[in-house]
Amino acid sequence: MRQTFHETTRPEQGPANLKTVRAVLAQRGLDGFIVPHEDEHQNEYLPEANDRLAWLSGFTGSAGAAIVMADRAAMFTDGRYTQQVRDQVDGASFEFLDLVEGGVPGFVRDLPAGTRLGYDPRLHSPDALGAIAREAKAASVELVACEANPVDEAWGDQRPPQPAAPVVPHEIRFAGESSASKRERLGESLAARGIDAALLTAPASVAWLFNVRGGDVIRTPLPLAQAILNSDGSARLFLDPAKISDALPGWLGNEVSLERPEALEGALGDLKGRRLLIDPAQSSAWYFERAEALGVHIERGPDPCALPRATKNETEIEGARRAHIRDGVALATFLHWVGTEAQETLPDERVVVERLEQLREATGALKDLSFDTIAGAGPNGALPHYRPVERTIRRVEKGSLLLVDGGGQYLDGTTDVTRTMAIGEPSAEQKDRFTRVLKGHIAMSVVRFPAGTTGHQLDVLARLPMWMAGLDYDHGTGHGVGSYLGVHEGPQRIAKAVNTQPLLPGMIVSNEPGYYRPGHWGIRIENLQVVTEARAIEGGERPMLGFETLTFAPIDRRLIEVSLLSDAERAYMDRYHAEVLAKIGPHLDGEVLAWLEVQCAPL
User: Fold this and answer.
1) Would you state the torsion angle of the CA atoms of residues 337, 339, 341, 342, taken in this order, to the nearest 10 degrees?
2) pLDDT tens, 1-18?
3) Cβ(245)–Cβ(227) under 8 Å?
4) What digits encode the pLDDT tens for the residues 60-70?
């Protein structure tokens, strides 16, 4: 099995590791040190060797930070991890603070004047570091850049080696455009702006631009590498020689030079007096500091790969359609099992996760999971980012709900889907809440919108049925998804938080409203959908963009309170289920097909 259920950290490691880090800080004359979750590549999911926050504290969430002082330590997490951080981190050693409200800058603001606070410039974006620096200056706190990370020194020989998975070609039949073509058009764009080169430090951008994939990051086929793209379309790729597969040099061609990572600083020096684009949201402060010190003229701006990567070409969109049909067959078989056998055997969450993984594996095309499967039985489903581990695994129970959120990595696409199923007869409250979530999901599926609209502007549509009942959910409604890349991809998103990036044709986003009753159960319905070109609406005056649904899996009709649906919503559900049957049914037979026909019958 790809997914395991053992915990890789323990709360008791925090006190011991704090002691070791404090000894290093004392040797360096530092009063404290900031430990962000992010690594040198600003990754969301980290290789074990770069997960400094997990080693220090035991916390394994995908967002957070810590500050270690001589006499106290603080852990910062957002609302998604309120319970997880208390389960994983020793509360006697760390105080728990909010990452968003106040956060690290707020903590720094309250430090005594004269405090010497260390940080690793390779781990902080200039934007994040700037917010900290402003508060430090106001409080007369001295920020000290550490060339060698104190946590790494404290970790010592116990630190795992850096990953060195081979970097391999990602074929044109999946990518839809050659690397040479991508480099040429991006180079022309740089030249048109008078920019000589762009520094790329985001692994997803490196993978996309050069049409390669790796295996350095869990659940995501990314190579840890950096690159410099020149305005003439040539490039320098800085990659550990251990990762260079036999096919890679020929695949990259003569316009791309392969160099060791330690050559990057010299390459920045080669750009002295020239204009270099660096993304302050993607690249760490170290790159800005080194480039400036070497006499490079820095242009701050978005990673030039981010938007082209997010707006999938037709080959990538067609690949996503194929991947979702393949994944949908596994899902339908899994949902049949949940709806029949599991209703009597009442399996635990481990069995649920393993069954779904086995069915995805049986497609013969699965390269990896796109993230560890969330299978939340009863109260565990009320934790949006729950992951089953041996200590928390529960059996499903009659009268409760089972929430399963998972996805697969396939060469032609990345999937992410959530379904919530009734175990036994659902209650009136469960049906009411599920149907309100469904109404929001439908609204986000059918909406048409003008060019220039952002996900932030659409977010309210998914929440309105909840708000009208005095309910809400504390996560975003949708995130971008890559093409055999990360299951979380920007710059687009659908959320309450302001996001200025308009939704553009070819962008893939999730549609996943939810409701969570703490201590009881949770509900989430998630499909992926792709933004479609603007088209005329009969009788209208302006063409409007919209969404095409990519995910096809039945929605548990036992949880739908049909009386709460409008005629249009009911018609949508009938159309959606008819399409599920038409696309998935031909790949099934026997009991599973018969079951799917019943599930997809008109409401």
Assistant:
1) 90
2) 999 999 889 999 999 999
3) no
4) 988 899 999 99
